[in-house]
Every structure is written in C-alpha cells, then in structure tokens.
C-alpha cells in the first residue's frame, strides 16, 4: 500500500490544506459541548438569560464554521482521491503497454482489466473516505480525550477501558479479513476471465451448442465469488454489534458514575453533559475508524495487486544508451539464434542463422509448431533471443530503442486485429500523418479498395470492435494496408495471406512487388503458392533450420519442403 502512495506526491499541498481544514472543523465540534456546559452551569446558577443568548450565538457561529470546514474538506478529499485514481490508472496502462508478451501473458488480460478498474476503484474509494475520516478521527479522538480530562479526570478512566478494547478488536479482525479480501479479488479475476472468454468466443460456443456449459462455468465462478464475499462480510458484520455494545456500555458507565459524582457535589451537571458529549465524539471517531477498517483490508489487497503490475520488471527493456544504425540498409540478420519461452523444457528455435537484405523476400515455412511465428516475433523484439543475435541494419536489436526499431518495421500479425473506428483511422493507425492519397494507395495495393469503396460511407465507414462487421479476408487486407501505408524498411507478414483466396493472393503479391521493391520482406506462410517466388525460403522443422534456398533448389535438396509441396501442389505444378 505504501509503494502506491508515491503517486500522492503531487497532491501533498491538498493534503496539508485538508488537514488544516479538518483541524478547524474539529475545533468547532469540540467547542460545542464546552459551550453547552457554560449554558447549563452559568444559566442555572445565575439565571442570566443574556449568557444563554451570547453562548447560543457562539454555538451557531461555531456550527456554521464546522459546516463550512466539512464541505471544504470533502471537496479536497474528493479532488485528491480522484486525481490519484486517474494517475495510477495512467501509470498502470503505461506500464502494461511497455510489457513484453511474456509479462502480459503471465498476468493475463482478465486480471489486468480487473486491476486497472476494480482494484484501483477500491483504493480510490478508501482515499475519499480516508482523507475525510482517518485524518479527522484522530484529531477528534485526541481533542476529545484532552477536553474530557479537563472536565473530570476520574470519569475519564472509563475511556481507558473502552478505547483499548475497541482497538484490539479492530486490529484482530483486520488481520483475519486481509487474506480473505485477496482471495476475493482473485475470484473477481476468474469471473472476468470466464465472462471475457464467453463473449469473445460466442461464435464457437454457439456453433458447438455449448451455451449450457458456459452458463455453468459462469455460474460456478459467480458462486465462488459470492461465497467468499459472504464469508468476508460475515466477519465484518460482527464488528458493528460489538462497537454498538461497547459504545452503549460506555454511555451507561458515564451516566452511572457521573451521576454519583454529581450527587456528591464533586461534579456539575453541565460538566457531566459535556463529558458525555466528548465521550460520544471520541467513540464516534473510533467508530469511523472501524468503518474504514471494513474497507482498508480490501484496498490493501487491491494495492498489492496494483503494485505487482507497477513493480514487475519487463524482460524486454530499452538499453541505457541506445545505438542508432549508421545507415538505413534494411538488413535483417540472425546469428546462431536460439529461443526458449520462460519455463519451457526445450527451446522453440535452435541455432538459426540467415541474412535478408533490402529488395529481397525471405519466406519461412514449416509444420505447425515449428517456430515460424516465434522467429518473426524476434525481429520487432516481442521477445528477446536467449542465445545468439538478431541484427537490424547491423545493430543488435537489444541495443536499439524499441520505438526506433519498430519504426522501421511494418508488421502484419497472424490474426487480423482491427480497432473500433473508421476504415480511414484503422489504416492511418500505421502512420498517423498519412494523407488521403497514401491511404487510398495502400488500400489499392492491399486489394482492399474495391470492397471499401462499396461500403455506405467508403473510407469513413465505421468498423465495429474487433472488426466483427467484416469478413476474415477483409480484415486481413485492411491489416496489410495498415502496414503498407507505413512505408517501412522491413515488412513482416506473419501468415497474413491465409484468409485470402488464390486470386486475391496473387493480385496482392503482384501489387506488393511494386511497393516494397526496396524493402526487406519476411513472409511466414503455410501455402506454397504464396512463397514460390521468394528469393530465399527457410524451412523449419521442430525449431531447426533444415533447408534454405529457392523453391526449385529446395525441391531437390530438402525432404521436409518436398513433403509440404506434395501435400499442396499437383504433379504438374511440381514438375
């Protein structure tokens, strides 16, 4: 909880102002019982109505001052807590954006969403209440104790019994519920995960008629969360009856022993009334802290989870002194590269070496799970090679700033990802200052212009979240257009032509040759027809490079490549 509070530094001035205001409110509240005591004592003894009027006016002024201070303190508390929540959410989002795929997959999308929304909201709520009550309650408690001692030291002994009892109960209860709240947040993660999977996979669920199964999964996750929440709230619910019992017992003890002292002329009635009011203010301040104790354990559990996101070190980080390539040569080189995912038993890639220069097209093919996409992902540093070097323009990618490295690359992922917004905005995502002419040219090259122009609003047509209002091939072509408009030095197509028919595939590749003749092109493919014309074809088998050359050369020298060709091409095409 303490680590995350570093984001409160910009708001220290507001905190100080809030404390000053709370002191003013406490002074007003604590003075009221004293003024009541003056009315009772002086009015009864002297029968002096002007004393009552004067004291009454003072009480009204103090009450008004306390109300103003309360409003100002609430404003400061809300302003501070909401600003804090905004800053932490921004920090979490920025941190997640800097994660490598390993950290992202380690925590999981559902948990990251929960931590960015629910967890930060829990902390923010506690801050709103905390700066209003946690700072105010100690002032009231200490001030009340001082004022009650000034009225009657003997009667104040009652508070020495009730206050420590309350504190012990609260601390003990808090120690029990913190682990329960941690479990509760994990159950919320699981609920979000189940809901997210059901929503994103709705087509598969309906296609296989698994609606009832998904309902049962969600019901089970919902039931687990409910059971944990009920167990926690049962523990917390026991606090209020105990608090009420102790408060009422304290009141009875004050009246009982105070009455005895009044009867013995050791105390005045007004002082006893004032003491009773101070005692209630002390107990009420402790009660407010008790209410906060219901919220603080959950906020503490949430703060730990948020700190896990903020403190996690990224595996892929920029070097202290990034290097800049001496020339823009669009050269990609692998030198003895091996890669293993964290915790994996064996490497996915083993001793891969090749060079791809500007104007060349290098294709990567192999069986499922042979490491094709992993190899392509090492170039933009989605992961770092565990052995060997990946070089771009003669510089190891680990020695380059990620931003400058990725500015050289136009990447088209295996799964076409589009964002909500217009077609124009999705293509311009590759280059934010792209002109209308550049966007249109990229769409024509990607064979997307025809279907876009037939849409109701053309390039201003809205695309639904995830591109659900487009077919797979349309999404794929817009993804390719997004990379083309970037006009990068290096193009990486990660199985990006799989959703296209053969005619569109051929037309797209023919148009691409004109656009990317001076760039380095890396193509990951499953279809032989997409890569037959490549300058170099790399054949992977179980993470090893088992063949490299042109299509005709590999047909003669690489058995793995020939098997792939036989499974896809006719005898005439092979000949």
Structural features, described:
This protein has 3 domains: 3-195 and 228-311, ABC transporter type 1, transmembrane domain (ABC transporter transmembrane region fold); 330-408 and 489-575, Rossmann fold (3-Layer(aba) Sandwich); 416-487, Rossmann fold (3-Layer(aba) Sandwich), CATH 3.40.50.300. It has a 6-stranded mixed β-sheet, with helices on both faces. Strands 2-1-4-5 form a 4-stranded antiparallel β-sheet, covered by helices on one side. The two termini are 70 Å apart. By secondary structure, the protein is of the alpha/beta class. The protein is 63% helix and 10% strand. It contains 20 helices and 12 strands.
Spans of at least 5 consecutive residues whose pLDDT stays below 50 are none
Spatial order of strands in the largest sheet: 6-9-10-3-11-12
CATH top level class name of the largest domain:
Mainly Alpha
Structural classification: alpha/beta
In total, the number of strands is: 12
Overall 3D shape = elongated
What is the CA–CA distance across the termini? Answer: 70 Å
Summarize this, please?
This protein has helices at residues 12-46, 49-97, 101-107, 109-134, 136-151, 157-200, 202-207, 211-237, 239-263, 269-311, 372-378, 402-407, 423-428, 436-445, 449-453, 472-484, 502-515, 551-557, 559-568, 571-574, and strands at residues 332-339, 349-356, 361-366, 387-392, 395-396, 409-412, 421-422, 462-463, 490-494, 520-524, 536-541, 544-549. With 575 residues, the protein is of the alpha/beta class.
């Amino acid at each position: 909880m303490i680590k995350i509070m570093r984001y409160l530094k910009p708001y220290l001035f507001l905190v100080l102002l809030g404390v000053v205001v709370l002191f003013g409110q406490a002074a007003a509240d604590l003075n009221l019982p004293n003024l009541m005591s003056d009315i009772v004592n002086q009015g009864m003894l002297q029968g002096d109505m002007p004393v009552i009027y004067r004291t009454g006016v003072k009480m009204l002024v103090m009450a008004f001052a306390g109300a103003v201070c309360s409003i100002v303190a609430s404003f400061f508390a809300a302003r501070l807590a909401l600003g804090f929540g905004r800053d932490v959410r921004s920090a979490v989002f920025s941190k997640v954006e800097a994660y490598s795929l390993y950290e992202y997959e380690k925590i999981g999308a559902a948990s990251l969403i929960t931590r960015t929304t629910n967890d930060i909201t829990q902390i923010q709520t506690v801050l709103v209440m905390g700066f209003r009550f946690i700072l105010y309650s100690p002032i009231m408690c200490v001030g009340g104790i001082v004022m009650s001692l000034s009225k009657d030291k003997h009667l104040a002994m009652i508070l020495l019994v009730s206050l420590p009892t309350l504190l012990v109960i609260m601390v003990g209860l808090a120690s029990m519920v913190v682990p329960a709240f941690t479990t509760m947040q994990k159950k919320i993660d699981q609920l979000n995960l189940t809901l997210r999977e059901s929503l994103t996979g709705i087509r598969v669920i309906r296609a296989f008629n698994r609606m009832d199964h998904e309902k049962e999964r969600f019901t089970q996750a919902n039931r687990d969360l409910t059971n944990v929440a009920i167990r926690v709230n049962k523990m917390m619910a026991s606090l209020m009856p105990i608090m009420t019992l102790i408060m009422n017992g304290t009141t009875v003890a004050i009246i009982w022993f105070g009455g005895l002292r009044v009867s013995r002329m050791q105390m005045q009635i007004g002082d006893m009334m004032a003491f009773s009011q101070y005692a209630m203010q002390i107990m009420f301040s402790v009660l407010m802290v008790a209410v906060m104790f219901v919220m603080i354990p959950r906020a503490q559990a949430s703060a730990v989870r948020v700190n896990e996101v903020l403190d996690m070190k990224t595996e892929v980080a920029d070097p202290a002194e990034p290097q800049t390539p001496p020339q823009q040569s669009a050269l990609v080189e692998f030198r003895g590269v091996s890669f293993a995912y964290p915790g994996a038993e064996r490497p996915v890639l083993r001793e891969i070496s090749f060079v791809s220069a500007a104007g060349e097209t290098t294709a990567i093919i192999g069986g499922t799970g042979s490491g094709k996409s992993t190899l392509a992902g090492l170039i933009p540093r989605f992961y770092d090679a565990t052995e060997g070097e990946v070089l771009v323009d003669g510089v190891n990618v680990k020695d380059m700033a990620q931003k400058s490295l990725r500015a050289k690359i136009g990447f088209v992922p295996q799964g076409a990802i589009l964002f909500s917004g217009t077609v124009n905005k999705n293509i311009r995502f590759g280059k934010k200052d792209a002109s209308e002419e550049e966007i249109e040219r990229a769409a024509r090259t990607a064979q997307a212009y025809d279907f876009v122009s037939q849409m109701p609003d053309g390039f201003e047509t809205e695309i639904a979240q995830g591109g659900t209002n487009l077919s797979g091939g349309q999404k794929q072509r817009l993804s390719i257009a997004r990379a083309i408009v970037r006009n990068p030095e290096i193009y990486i197509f990660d199985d990006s032509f799989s959703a296209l028919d053969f005619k569109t595939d051929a037309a797209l590749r023919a148009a691409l040759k004109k656009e990317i003749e001076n760039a380095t092109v890396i193509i990951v493919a499953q279809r032989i027809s997409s890569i037959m014309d490549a300058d170099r074809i790399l054949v992977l088998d179980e993470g090893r490079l088992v063949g490299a050359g042109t299509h005709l050369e590999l047909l003669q020298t690489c058995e793995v490549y020939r098997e792939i060709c036989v499974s896809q091409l006719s005898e005439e095409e092979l000949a």
